[in-house]
Amino acid sequence: MTRRREARPFAEHYGDLVRVALMEARPAGLHTRQLVSATRLTKSQVARGIRHLRDVGAAEHLTPIIWRRRDGYMFSDDPVD
Questions:
Q1: What residues have CB less than 8 Å from 73, skipping those under 6 apart?
Q2: In this model, does residue 49 exceed pLDDT 80?
């Protein structure tokens, strides 16, 4: 039996900040440096926030976060994702 890893409070907080920044930028995406600027987090904190959002999103069947070279991180509008 696999247990879902419990979210650390910081990862959840970073994920919330990243989610808000991506929602405000929607439908455009944001690159890591733009997320750092928008959230005032470090690059590694932004990465932890994105990992948290991906884990939670996958577990709860929410809109996935994708990355594209041209657009950066964004919420996917494609149902296949």
A1: 18, 22, 29, 30, 31, 32, 35, 50, 65, 66, 67
A2: yes
